[in-house]
Amino acid sequence: MLKRFFILCSGADRVLLSNCSEGEQTKYVGIGATVFFTAVMAFLASAYALFTVFDNPYYATVFGIVWALLIFNLDRFIVSTIRKRDNFRTELLQASPRIVLAIIIAIVISKPLEIKIFEKEINTVLLKEKNAMAIANKNQVSDYFKNDINKNQAEIDSIKSTLQAKEKEVANLYQAYITEAEGTTGTKKMGKGPIYKEKREAHDLALRQLDSLRITSSKIISEKESRAKNLQADLDKKIGDTKPVIDNFDGLMARINALNELPFLPSFFIMLLFLAIETSPIIAKMLSPKGEYDFKLEDNEAALKVNLEQHNYQRRLQKETDAAIYDTIYQDIKSEKELYDYKKKSAIELLKLQSDHYVEKQKGSM
């Protein structure tokens, strides 16, 4: 059962191959197995590649099956159409389109498995990139809110500075009227004289202004601090909104770019391995010696070619003979008077009908 399946995979004529030796059948079983396992590898690679894109095992499985069937059919067709002609250059030229396609396919399907093989190293590279992106994003968002935050803080600092200056002024006025009463400064007279009263009134006025300024400043500072909290909350929210985008930065393209950051040689050898796998059905067919099956197939094709040439030659002779016979027949008919009179009568009737029709048409247009 397995032998018949692999012979089917090889694209060989089962009826013709069944009449060959056991060794010849084993050769084509090996070629068919190579075609089959190449399709299996194509399924694994393509399914994993699509899984990294959509993260859906069902889509990945369906696409992997379709891709594997495509590769299987293509390999089977190429292997079955390569003929052993005792000329390696001719066979290589015949297989060259498939070899070029194999190189492209090997590069495409090797990348997903390389990503899986070097997953830990790629995760390390992606982590560094995510951290760098997070820092850059935070700086960018901070720069966006920086003007509003700095302006708001500057206004708060300005109000606090004005309040502190007023408090200092009140403290100085307080010190002035106290020392005036003690007689240590000013008029140097102890007691509450006119100068003391003036200084006391100036202090009381400044104190009332300070109390009013404190009430007004407290309200404004409260509003500014509330706005500062809102700006900081908006900044944190903006950073939080972009965090999932950065965390999800691990798709197929990101991983391929991260893979390119790793040493080139390991990836190159894996790609060569897949190239060998992709071209193995063709190489197996080209390297296999011309055997009994090839001779029988060549004999059948030659017999069919001779048969077709004979049929074509007979058709050409029949055509030439019929043409010569009909030429002779029509040449003899040409001199028959009865046929001439009949043709003349028919021509006269046709001319009369054409003339009558023309007259009627002219009358209708007048």
UniProtKB/TrEMBL annotation:
Q: Does the keyword Coiled coil apply?
A: yes
- Which spans of this chain does the record mark as coiled coil? 149-176
What Pfam families does UniProt report for this protein, alphabetically?
A: DUF4407
InterPro entries hit by this protein:
DUF4407
**Key word Iron-sulfur present:** no
- Classify the source by domain of life: Bacteria
Q: Which keywords belong to this entry?
A: Coiled coil, Membrane, Transmembrane, Transmembrane helix
Question: Which residue ranges does UniProt annotate as crossing the membrane?
Answer: 28-51, 57-74, 264-284
The entry's protein name is DUF4407 domain-containing protein
Lineage, please? Answer: Bacteria, Pseudomonadati, Bacteroidota, Flavobacteriia, Flavobacteriales
